[in-house]
């Protein structure tokens, strides 16, 4: 086939793709007969009512000398690992505020960290395009540093996010600026599967975030600079199961909803969304109406659901930390406006395993632990 | 993947004999073929999804499921929550009761409780 003929085919195929996408968009719009908030209101639900003193900052974890970029809790006990611009990981006992480990990283440009399910190892990654594993029980070297026990190499771009597969200390999923996600075998350092990249259903830009389904750990969702989230089956690397459209900017954060059938997203467009995993429906948008133009809208950096799913915690670039009522799509509290709030961007947040505490990490170099300290009515 | 409506290659001299293939042309054809394959694959996926939507239920089913899934689950962050209340939820605060009054302090430093 001649070059001009190929070009014509390319043009025709591109037009067909665009037309199908438009049809899909319209058909999906027709299927949105209600959203979560409208439905909840129709059932007579009213928003969760917090008094301003209900959520309390019960700890401030100080020690990093640079912006905090990432944090992760252990499934048990009260420990947190945090990663910072200062090139260190710190392991904290969140209850006592004590630092149990401080790890000076070989590559200072760290972007993400994660705790292994058994709490014995931590993983981190960043601009070195690799994921480094540290065994917290290993003997320190001459400089008093914990040595790297394994380096997972293979990504062709920065590692933006990493998460251990729930219940499996030997499996880890990373997301990368090279537009792929990878499932790793930590013991051998080998890539088990690569999601995206050469395949057409992969992300078309940097992947920024990943969340593994705790109800079904074969499924995970990724968020990308291509403004979409994608669902993957870890056993099927050849294509994404589904692509979720709706955001107008980078999807910085993705997190599964506690029921394992939906997931939330947070984006540069300043909104959070709730998607239905199975159907792909956009079930709710969480957005504040702002008086000024969209250019000033703070971006969503991180999200987490409370253990029942009734609350959605969202961290923003302007230091706000909204507590959304997931069902009513209303902001019921702003942790960023309390006296004890952070003094900079909220870059990361996460809930303890029993759902009793929220940890926020900030560019103000601190981490904070928040818990409900008001009067609780148990029904 | 939106492209402009590109016209066919311009600038080729009208000649009865085909020009000898150049490396640049070969690579260009190869890349274009690969791009077309990817687009065709995407068309297939999109058509599958469109078919799927024909039989798909509207969003109200999922909205109802979400609504129901948040009910009945104990949640430490809710002012009103179904039980049971886990006493471990209180570990982030320490209660001290004096004989005269009920006082409690937020614990800011090290604690014996772990």
List the helices and strands and how they pair.
The complex is a heterodimer of chains A (379) and B (114).
Chain A: H1 3-31, H2 36-42, E1 55-61, E2 68-73, E3 79-84, E4 88-93, E5 98-104, E6 110-115, E7 121-126, E8 131-135, E9 148-152, E10 159-164, E11 171-176, E12 180-185, E13 190-196, E14 207-212, E15 219-224, E16 229-233, E17 242-244, E18 251-256, E19 262-267, E20 272-276, E21 282-286, E22 300-305, E23 311-316, E24 321-325, E25 330-334, E26 346-351, E27 358-362, E28 367-372, E29 377-378
Antiparallel strand pairs in A: 1-28, 2-3, 3-4, 4-5, 6-7, 7-8, 8-9, 10-11, 11-12, 12-13, 14-15, 15-16, 16-17, 18-19, 19-20, 20-21, 22-23, 23-24, 24-25, 26-27, 27-28
Chain B: H1 23-54, H2 59-69, E1 80-81, E2 94-97, E3 102-105
Antiparallel strand pairs in B: 2-3
- Briefly note the structural class of the backbone of chain B: mainly alpha
Distinct helical segment count of chain A: 2
Task: Give the tally of β-strands of chain A.
Answer: 29
Q: Largest contact between protein chains?
A: A-B, 89 and 66 residues
Residue windows where pLDDT falls under 50 for at least 5 positions of chain A: none
Instruction: Name the average pLDDT of chain B.
Output: 73
Question: Which runs of chain B of at least 5 residues are low in confidence (pLDDT < 50)?
Answer: 1-11, 95-114
What radius of gyration of chain A results from the CA coordinates?
Answer: 21 Å
Strand content of chain A: 35-45%
Task: Order the strands across the largest sheet of chain A as they lie in space.
Answer: 1-28-27-26
Q: From the helix content, strand content and strand pairing of chain A, which structural class follows?
A: mainly beta
Order of helices and strands of chain B, N to C?
HHEEE
Distance between the termini of chain B: 55 Å
Query: Percent range for helical residues of chain B?
Result: 25-40%
Oligomer: heterodimer
Strand coverage percent of chain B: 5-15%
What's the shape of chain B?
A: elongated
Give the CA-CA distance, first to last residue of chain A. 73 Å
Coiled coil (chain B): 29-56
Domain G protein gamma (chain B): 33-106
GO biological process, one term (chain B): G protein-coupled receptor signaling pathway
Keywords (chain B): Cell membrane, Coiled coil, Membrane, Transducer
